[in-house]
Each structure stands twice: as structure tokens, then as C-alpha cells.
Amino acid sequence: MSFSSPKVSRASNRPPVLTNPVRYPESASAPARSKRAWFLLLLTLFVPGAAQIVAGNKRFGRLALRCTFTVWALVIAAVALALVHRETLLNLFTNPLSSLAIIVVLLALALGWAIVFLNTLKIIRPSMLAPGMRALVSGALVVLMVLTSGSLAYGAFLINSGRNAITSIFQSGPDMVPVDGRYNFLVMGGDAGADRTGRRPDSIIVVSIDAKTGQAATMSIPRNLQNAQFSPDSPLWGVYPEGYNCGDDCIINFLYTDVTNNHAGLYPNAPDPGAAAMMDAAGGTLGLQIQGYVLVDMAGFSTLIDALGGVKVNVGGWVPISGDDVNGTGDHLPPTGWIAPGVQTLNGYHALWYARSRQWVPEYNRSQRQQCIQAAMLAQMDPATVLTKFNGIAAAGAKVIESDIPAGQLGSFVSLALKSKEHSLARLTIGPPDFDQDFPTYPDFDVIHERVKTLLNPPAPSEKPKTEEAPAAPAVPADPAAPAPEPAPVPVPVPTSAAPEAPAARPDVSAEYLQQLAINNDEAALFTLLANNGSCSPG
User: Fold this and answer.
1) What does the pLDDT look like over 341-355, one tens digit per residue?
2) Which residue ranges have biased composition labelled Low complexity (predicted)?
3) Residue ranges of domains in the chain, CATH in brackets
């Protein structure tokens, strides 16, 4: 029995014909090799892993492509989520746990993309390129690696900066729920200076935001408001059932220190008993339930403004940068500078003085300027500004802001803040120009509650204000010879919350002239010339 060996085709013993210049560049011309190099770089840039499929290790390419398609799917899902339910997407980036996962994924993608680029360089074989093209291709690869992997790593860095700021500023806890369809937050600004005992908030503003539309309103409470009220369910009701009325020292901004030093036990679960007491006082005074607070250390406020790149406002009138109070009596030395009228971008130092200065003007001018600074900052918080200055803003915020707002709900509030930019900001001041100057000393809280309700629930534009109808006069037979009566004048309704027009800034007034008045101690002239420095608007 014989066995015949299988026939082996001669063709199977021949070496492969290397006619594919993409996978086998040895047989290609120099221009073809250059085109191949750029083609592989572009594939790695737009479809990481594709270069390996067509010219390198296909197994490695398939793994890279799976990662690429997964990332594409996640990006498409994120875009769809941003369109359908933006709050959920923002919560993913602001929640401490999910943001940490995003940071890890971004760093892994940055490293993986860099590895793919280096593998592509190996496939390109720079030694087979002309010397000039070799340097050009290598340089382009480095640039593309910086733009891709570098951008992903920088994104992870920014998210980590925000994550650190969020964990430093905000608290962990259950989500807040809106009350009557609104979120109400107390925003305080103050500091414990060397000349003060404890922290006293000089700026007290309640921000109320519609939970659906984002329509926002601010209610400014002057620091010298007396007899601040508390609701029966407040821990302070038993101490001050008639309100904070223990004498002339019991103005509302003293309450923070009073509770911190004397009644902290009434708020055993509050991280800041003084802030919790101020929430109760502001809520009882305005007839609202305050759900959270934000406390800004005004001593570091300038750092936050500088991180934002300054704040642009239309300064209404001259504002003094007060000199030192050397005797502690409120009699300051002449100003060290002046903030001039007109549209300008204030740096941190000048923005802080603009918000705090109250020399030669009523307390309420300062309240108006503080509201103006807040509105200007809100207007400037566009995505481009926040993204380009995010690290500085986050670092500054962690140093100067504290809050009891839940960190897990921050994304929802960021979404509301974005919605609020689409509406005008409604304002109310518990003092001039909305009430007379003595009102904070003798407040009528029923009137305040009604004004707050009107502010937060304005009549629809189509509704006409109801007017009392005069009783009909008895019918009198018409006398043909009598002249026709003149029509009665139609009353023009004037909104009670409208601020009176401030006197226009005199063009002949200069910083030098005002400084000389201050040196001469001519307070009467200064009160007249600075009366309009509360009128301002975002620039």
C-alpha cells in the first residue's frame, strides 16, 4: 500500500505580495509614506483604534475601537440628558461620588488616548520618512496628544477642583423641598474683624427662586432692623416670643453673635447656630420659610471677585473708600480713594468697598449697591467665564463661602440659576426706597408680609388692577343750555415699590473736590453730593 503526499501549490510558498501601502509602506514611494503618516494621525485623532485596524495590531485596534464607541455613546447620552433633564446631568458632575467616577474615567481615557497615539507613531515608522517630514509628523503627533489627552486631563483637574470646593462649602444631607413652589435662601455677608466681637452679618438678603421657572426675587433686610420676628416653631420663640426686642442693641445683625455665644444649645444639630437663628429671624420677618443659607466672608469677598475677573457695574454716584476709624467711634479719617460714577469693571478691592461703604449716606444706599453687585455677578456667571476661570473661582469660593445647602442637590440649583438668567430680578428693600427711613426702627410686619406676597406673586400682565367704583350720582335731567362737564382726570398708577429717581451725578464734581470736602469735614455738602450713590445697575 502506498501513500501519496498531498500536493502543495507553488503559490502557497510564494512570499506575500506587499501591494498595500498603508499596511506595508516599504514598497511605497516617499510621498505615499507621508500621506500614510498623516492619514494614520487623523484616524487616531477622530477614531482612536482605527489606525491599528488598517495598519497595525488589529487586536489592540479592536479594543481601542470598543472604548471609542463606548465614549461616543456616553457623549450622545449626555447630550440627550442635557436636553431632556439638565438637572440630572449637572447632579452627576456635582455629586461627590459620581464626580469622582468621572474624574477616574477621564484620566483613564487621557492615558489610553496617549498610548494609542504612541502606538500610531510606531506604525508610522518615522525612520522611513524624509528628514523634514519626520520632524513635522512627530511634532504634529505631540500637539495632537496635548490637545486630546491634555484636554481630558485638564477636564479631570477642573472637575476635581469643583469637587473639592463643593465638599468644603456644602453639606451632606437630605434634599431640600420647595415651599409653596419656591426655594428661599438667606445670603449673608459679614466678617469677624479685629474690632468686632464675633461675626456680624452686615448684608442680609433673602433670595427666593421659583422651583420651576427660575424666576428670582431678592429681599434686602437692613442690618439695623429692630424687633425681628420668629415663628412659633422656632427655637427662639421661647426666648423672644415678642420678637428680638431686648433694646437698642437688638438689631437683627447682632442676633448671630447673641445666639452663637448665649443660645447655641437651642440649635444642637445645626453646624452654625448663629446662621440657623438668622434664617429663623429672616423667615419670621418676611413671612417665609427659609430652607438654607449661604454665608460669604466679606474679608475674602475680594478674592472671589478677582477670581471672576472683576465685576462690571454701572456706578450711580461717587462712593468713598473710607479712611481708618482710629478712635473706634465711627469718625473716619478722610477717604483713601473714591469710586467714580459710570460703567466700569471693579476689581475685588473696589467691589468690596462699593458693597460696604456707607459713609455720608443712609444705610439703604449700601443695601441697593449690594443687590446691584449680586445681580452683576449673576449676569457674568456665563458658562464661558465660569469654565475659563473655574479653578480660581472654586478655590476662592472654598475659602470665603459656607453653606448648609445639600451637595447632592447642587446640580438642581445650578440649573435653576441658569434659568433665572432668563428673567429680570425682582427686588424689595425693607427700608428706602420701598419704605420710609424710620420703617426698620418701627416695622409693621403685616405690611411686610403683604409686600412680599405681592413681590413673589405679581398679577398677570393681562390683569388690570381693581379700582374702587364711586357710588353712582342720582340721575339729573340734562340741561341743554349747560356746558358739558370736563372729563375727570385719569389717575396714573404708580408702583409702590418703585425707587425714586436719584439725582444725576454732577459733571463738575471730581474726586479731588470731594476729598477736599472730606478734609474740611463738610458733611452737609457730602450728604447732598453722595445721595445718589445707591442707584446702580449691572454693567
Assistant:
1) 999 999 999 999 998
2) 470-479, 495-508
3) 21-169 (no CATH), 182-432+533-538 (3.40.630.190)
